[in-house]
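From the pipeline queue, job 12 of 40. The input is one protein chain; the requested action is below.

Action: predict structure.
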Amino acid sequence: MTDFSDNPRAGAATVAPEKQTTADRRANAQPRYHVLLWDSDDHTFAYVEKMLRELFGHSTKQCERIAKQVDAEGRAIVLTTTREHAELKRDQIHAYGKDHQEASQGSMWSTIEPAE
């Protein structure tokens, strides 16, 4: 027979941790932010699509849809994430560089805003 008298946890029942409810997880979640890409006549569809693929890993279809939305509506949400990650992605868009057409003065413009 084993003597458990030296082990203070001997014979103690194991208690499973309580599971968080969906509401608890939402209450603890970080606020979300949209990364917005703004329209620019200085950039081609090919430039926008290439940038979105390289910086965000979007599929070709997603890139085409976003590029068309930016052109038609003046802006498009390219990602919704935490504030820190949104700021990083905005800064990457700003640092991406200019299009290879003569009119291009630099990178596209991007901002972040709280997601509702």
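Job complete. The longest helix spans residues 60-73.
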